[in-house]
Specification:
alpha/beta, two-stranded parallel sheet, 9 helices
């Protein structure tokens, strides 16, 4: 478990240095450990280190882990979300943010289930900035129209945008995808859509977090850089 503490320290050090170079306040940037396929014991090391938010990409795993931690822990859903699984997240009032909303149908289901639970669900709009047909997310050119439609839903609150950049050994190659997301956020802000905020940009992972910070990321999704290799069952 000391390996986890050491990796966490190195990631935090990288974030601090990158924020300083970019002239950003470190308080603007959240490190979100991605705990998919990692044990409760590993997660408790992170929790003891002062981080109380985790990201999961599978609803079943999130709900299984939910009751193992106290009410201080907050959960993020970062993976592709099927409409028939939304009800499980709505019931978990510690599910604080869904990163992966890319359609009006999904947003309407989240709104319906959140209304049943008498809560407002915070969401991010997932944007496919690479325009890769094999990836989830709405294309940038269609995003503003979708945001306008979702903004009318009473039990959903748009807090920002998310993207998953193509993997590259050279982080500079993914910079354009992060920049595109930031530019889209600025466009949305300029329009001024009611019930919509652009406070959060969820982008950047272990390999490219420095570039993401330079381009405006507020949430960094880091898995292997903290936990090591996944424990596939």
């Amino acid at each position: 478990m000391q390996d986890i503490q050491s990796r966490l320290y190195k990631i935090e050090e990288r974030i601090e240095k990158a924020a300083k170079r970019a002239g950003r306040n470190i308080s603007e940037i959240k490190l979100l450990p991605i705990s998919k396929y990692h044990s409760l014991e590993k997660m408790k090391v992170i929790l003891d280190g002062g981080i109380n938010e985790f990201g999961e990409s599978r609803v079943q795993e999130l709900t299984d882990k939910y009751d193992e931690f106290d009410s201080e822990v907050r959960w993020h859903m970062i993976g592709h979300l099927q409409r028939n699984k939304v009800k499980y997240l709505a019931r978990r009032h510690r599910c604080t943010l869904i990163h992966s909303v890319d359609s009006l149908r999904l947003a309407k289901e989240i709104n319906k289930r959140s209304k049943q639970e008498d809560r407002v669900m915070n969401i991010l709009i997932q944007v496919n900035t690479a325009e890769d047909d094999n990836k989830f997310g709405i294309y940038s050119k269609e995003a503003i129209e979708l945001i306008k439609k979702i903004s009318k839903l009473e039990y959903v609150k748009i807090k920002g945008l998310m993207t998953i950049a193509p993997y590259s050994d050279d982080p500079e190659e993914v910079r354009p995808y992060f920049r595109k997301l930031k530019e889209l956020a600025l466009k949305v802000e300029a329009i001024g859509i009611e019930n919509v905020e652009m406070d959060e940009l969820s982008m950047g992972m272990t390999n490219d977090l420095e570039v993401a910070i330079e381009e405006g990321a507020t949430i960094l999704r880091v898995g292997s850089g903290i936990f090591g290799e996944r424990e596939y069952k």
